[in-house]
Amino acid sequence: MDITRRTVLKATALGAFAVAAGARFVSAQTAGSGAIEANDRVFIANEDSNTISVIDPQTNTVDTTINLTSFDEDPRPPFRFVTGGVMPTHAAMIHKPLYHGAIDIHGVVPSPDGKLLATAGRGSSNLYLIDTLTKKVVGNTPNLLANPTTGGDRLTSGVLVGREPHEPTFTRNGKEVWVAVRGEDRIAILDVEAVIKASGGAAVNAVRMYLPTINGPAQVWFSADGSLAFVASQKVSRVDVFQVRPDPQGYSQPQRTVTLDISAADKPGFTPFLKTSPDGAEVWLSHKLADQVSALDTRDPHRTVDVVPLGNLARPNHLEFVQNSKGKAIFVSLARVDDGGPGGVACSQLAVIDHSAAAGARKVVKTFFTHGREAHGVWTNPTHTLLYVAHEQDELPSTPNAGQTVCSAFDVSDPFDPKFLAQIPLGALKLPSGELRNKKSINLVYVRPGAKSQSA
Q: Which of 76, 291, 304, 367 could be stapled to 349 by a disulfide with Cβ–Cβ 3.0 to 4.6 Å?
């Protein structure tokens, strides 16, 4: 690895030159065999730019940026991103005349086989699919107005699902996508094959049904065997539990079994994220305004088995399970930005919970800085030895990646001794009329196309 003057300055400012200089070797030497394969990619949904950054974990650099905007499909000014040298604000960008692209790209999740991603446009009320191998939006069509000053594709409209879709999740058999329609009180259940056809312009109804649920549903996650669906809310202190009941073709016939009162863990009623543990025994929930996380037993009657406080104004976003030969941990991303980070730079932290402790006795055993501001999405590789963290805010002035949104990579071969590998600037999408900076990263997933993913 060549160490340039820029690399030295950057690493020194972060107080981590020794780590940064060996970052690409650390993952190969300490993360273990099979930690990274050739087609592995990290996908990050950038809400303000309506793009998806794709990182190659072998180099910890941006491989490509997937465009979910409709800018520059037409050479005339109302269709372009930059007109007359003027770059619009975010609010003006998505309200430009004739814009038909995504608004507020948010959730992103892999299919069970890792070949597709589902992502939602909160503001545009629709769902898109991404091919993880080609890194293309499914359903895009050739741009009939294409010339050297335009883009080559016309963005699909995806599938309209309802007001404020927050998070999509594939069923364990991959037949459906369940989308939590947070602005309403229902879940849109879509046929994946029909979504592919509808995205390409076919006159098919991709939405199989709307499932009534609690108000403000934030996300759905399924039990390990796919028989139960757990639904969290950002408006009420409740969790809905449904039996999925797939028919012989694998399509769900859902039936609510119980609505749980979780006000003891989440009095404000704001739970944006939940995920089932690898062993399938628990579903863990992030209570952002209550500054804590909790765990429910996936078995009936789904009692609360843990409530773990994270500290004043911790503001937890997502959580991830890391389990390998060195231990079992739960990493929780904290939105709070703290002073005193590496190199004196203010940044967020991850909380580490010892998941091997007895139920009811789990607690935070350490925190560490993420090298980025307002940590959000967090996801591990299939061997649970690498961890990637997305951030909402740009880096501070006078830091190496000032004014850019960054992703951070860690070696978690020992879950209780994470080692910083790289701070990855996400850069910009290069449009014909100008550069659209990738901004406000939300969800992040590590994908190995063709292999069993965490949604399987």
A: 367
pLDDT for 446 equals 98
Write the CB contacts of 326 (distance below 8 Å, at least 6 apart in sequence): 413, 414, 415, 416
Beta strand 186-191 with 375-380: parallel, antiparallel or unpaired? unpaired
CATH topology of domain 5-447: Methylamine Dehydrogenase; Chain H (2.130.10)
- Look at residue 33 in the predicted model and tell me its pLDDT: 64
Domain boundaries, the chain: 5-447
Q: How deeply is 92 buried, as exposed, middle or buried, from its count of CB atoms within 10 A (0-12, 13-18, 19+)? A: exposed
pLDDT digits (tens, 9 = 90+) for 102-113: 999 999 999 999
Who contacts 203 (Cβ-Cβ below 8 Å, separation ≥6)? none
Q: What's the mean pLDDT in 75-98?
A: 92
Contact indicator for 27, 36 with CB cutoff of 8 Å:
yes
Beta bridge partners of 395: 402
Q: How many angstroms from the chain centroid is the CA of residue 248?
A: 32
**How far is residue 332's CA from residue 364's CA, in Å, rounded to a whole number?**
10
Indicate if the alpha-carbon torsion angle 243, 227, 216, 286 is positive or negative.
Answer: positive
Query: Confidence band (pLDDT; 50, 70, 90) for 34?
Result: confident
The pLDDT value given to residue 31: 62
Q: Are strands 217-222 and 375-380 parallel, antiparallel or unpaired?
A: unpaired
| Count of CA atoms in the C-beta half-sphere (13 A) of 362 | 26
Does residue 16 surpass a pLDDT of 60? no
Rounded to whole angstroms, how far apart are CA atoms 246 and 261?
Answer: 27
The pairing of beta strand 41-46 with beta strand 441-447: antiparallel
Secondary structure letter of residue 91 according to DSSP: H
How confident is the model over 417-451, as pLDDT tens digits?
A: 999 999 999 999 999 999 999 999 999 999 999 99
The number of residues making up the chain comes to 456
Task: Identify the residue with better confidence: 103 or 2.
Answer: 103
In one-letter notation, the amino acid at residue 375 is: A
SS3 395: strand
Q: CA 425 to CA 429: how far, in whole Å? A: 12
Region of 26 (left: φ > 0; alpha: ψ -120 to 50; beta: rest) is alpha
Helix (H) or strand (E) holding 304: strand 304-309
Q: Which two tokens stand for residue 315?
A: 């503001």
Give the DSSP H/E element, type plus range, for residue 18. helix 17-21
Q: Give the SS3 label for residue 270.
A: coil
Cβ atoms of residues 119 and 46 within 8 Å: no
